[in-house]
Amino acid sequence: MAKTSMINREIKRKKVAQKYAAKRAKLKEKLRVANLHDEDRETLRRQLQALPRDASPTRTRHRCALTGRSHGYYRKFGLSRSKLRETAMRGEIPGLVKASW
Fold first, then answer.
1. Domains 1-61 and 62-101 fall in the same CATH topology
2. Other beta carbons within 10 Å of 42
3. Closest by CA position to 56, among listed 5, 92, 13
4. Which of 15, 17, 25, 96 has the greatest count of CB atoms below 10 A from its CB?
5. Domain ranges for the chain
6. What pTM was estimated for this model as a whole?
7. pLDDT tens digits, residue range 6-24?
8. 100 vs 4, 11, 52, 97, CA distance in Å?
9. Hey, which bits of the chain come out as E strands?
10. Alpha-carbon dihedral angle through residues 2, 65, 6, 20, given to the nearest 10 degrees
């Protein structure tokens, strides 16, 4: 099980990223315009860099919903590989069956 502080940190990062998502997208869209002057482009970059570091969605990490484990994470289920196996063997995931051939 992951430390509670790490899980809480990830939750905080997701909230901050959602809070600044619109502002961040607007600044990035303005930066994509080709006919900007260098000074304007530089001010837009500075505004983007002035946002909190955790506002970037790349700072968030996927974690297991049950244990908080970050490695071996399956996006489709929101679980790590070990908990996915346990819940699948108990039959708690509809449509998921153990492979046999």
1. no
2. 11
3. 13
4. 17
5. 1-61, 62-101
6. 0.77
7. 999 999 999 999 999 999 9
8. 38, 38, 49, 9
9. 73-74, 79-80
10. 170
